[in-house]
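Handoff note, outgoing to incoming analyst
You'll be picking up this chain. Sequence as last confirmed:
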Amino acid sequence: MIAVENLSVRVWAFGLSGISFSVPAGSYAVLMGRTGCGKTMLLEAICGLNRLRSGSVRLMGADVSRLKPAARGVGYVPQDRALFMTMSVYENIAFAMRIRRWAEHEIDGRVRELADVMKISHLLPRRPSGLSGGESQRVALGRALAPRPRILLLDEPLSALDDPSRREIHELLNSTCRNKDVTVLHVTHHQDDARQLADRLLVMEDGVIRDGALE
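Most recent structure output, in case you need it:
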């Protein structure tokens, strides 16, 4: 469950104020809105990358408003994917587990499990620089899902993909997030993403988040 209450945050000259909404546990919510309205800023506030001026963020019932990002139990895929270019695909996926001090045999098992699900096992020794957009997106999703987060935040994860790759990632998200007790908040500009993935649509407009209608 994601519950944001009266959230206010500011980065340089731009800010959000009085934002409140919730996403029930296990739901897949898609958040839409005009470019520049603050969707990315909101995701960064939820995962702890932007400090709150006021208000609260509760995840799975716990107030995480003052916790560091690594302590929030959130999987986050930023818009630019932010893969570590000096690490192999294997090391990228293993990263979040290593900083949480998982045992090496557990890390190895989880990396190989996700690589199989994401169909990227053949890419594990490679570095991200030569990967296609779809391959990079699969690696970023694998890295976010690796430590088994209860909350998954996705910022325009499919924006650079062609239609066949987009359909593949739709199927991948449905198969990896449904029925696994993962609560998802997915930012996108594409109506098709909402139709294929969402069981709840949220719309950010004029500094307010309201429920939208799924077509």
